[in-house]
């Protein structure tokens, strides 16, 4: 895909401007991936504070804690990666062919298969890799959204890299700082599927968490300070979202917090990105609004989402997995982990093609 002197992408989607110079993409990301996320995260966070302060429910019922994660099977979470067979060619402005879909399938088979094998032989290392991959990927997604919204303060490699570390660390690290035993129980359930125990008492020790908290808080403040520009609306948005997420993950229990974030914050932002590279979704958004564009992208995601759900169910039945919510959630998250590695590879390639990501030239 070539680039003109004006910084536009010459492609099958009508030479759309690059990320950060595309008003329609900004509108899409704001309408689909930002406003619903802001409202939902703020509401859930406020609700958690009210429940805690009033003592109305000292502990959430088990089904409530797992509900957001269960919903992500069909509601944006799992489906947001089920368009990967179409996204690369759309991002490059080329027609999707059987060959291009086969290449994506090979990426998934190779990387996902290797990671699945690693879970069997080294589940603790695989769990650590999953946290690291998710940290990178969720930071990557927020960086793209900030770029799409025209944030001009992300103009150096250092600020961009530290923004990824901060944004990915909010859902991956802050819950550990506030709810260490619950965090450890979730990760322990992953490795328990493979007959191992998580020996990481040092990770949840008070001194370790205090050091991590101080370091991550310093990184947050330093990143925002490095990007500060008086009057920059993009910086104000970045700072407001960062503070909102800090508060959210400190007050909402981890399973609920991460489940809601996965569905409504990360996944919807990626859905907005998918709409941006799909001329049909853009047209639906212009002509009939957000719901029509969501339905079009949802239709693209439906076949592979259905296949994924059937595979998860099949593995659970064949392996004779316990039907306890904690065990089923662990199986689902390990399955997500296996899909995350090739998904990150696809998204990183899209970043390169769209002029986004850590290597973006301002």
Q: What keywords describe this structure?
A:
362 residues, mainly alpha, two-stranded antiparallel ribbon, 13 helices, 1% strand
What secondary-structure arrangement, pairings included, does this model have?
Layout: E1 2-3, E2 9-10, H1 23-54, H2 62-71, H3 87-92, H4 98-121, H5 123-148, H6 157-178, H7 180-192, H8 206-227, H9 233-251, H10 254-276, H11 279-288, H12 290-319, H13 325-354
Antiparallel strand pairs: 1-2
Helix pairs in contact: 1-9, 1-10, 2-10, 4-5, 4-13, 5-6, 5-10, 5-13, 6-7, 6-8, 6-9, 6-10, 7-13, 11-12
Descriptive overview:
- With 362 residues, the protein is mainly α.
- It has one domain.
- It is 74% helix and 1% strand.
- Strands 1-2 form a two-stranded antiparallel ribbon.
- β1 and β2 form a beta hairpin.
- α1 runs antiparallel to α10.
- It is globular.
- The chain starts with a strand and ends in an 8-residue tail after the last helix.
- The N terminus is likely disordered.
State the helix count.
13
- The tally of beta strands, per DSSP, is 2
Largest sheet: 2 strands, antiparallel
Which regions contain 5 or more consecutive residues with pLDDT less than 50?
1-17
Beta fraction: under 5%
Average pLDDT metric: 89
DSSP helix fraction: over 70%
> What's the shape?
globular
Helix and strand element order: EEHHHHHHHHHHHHH
How many distinct domains?
A: 1
Q: Give the structural class.
A: mainly alpha
Q: How do the strands of the widest beta sheet line up side by side?
A: 1-2
Computed Rg: 20 Å
CA-CA gap between termini: 19 Å
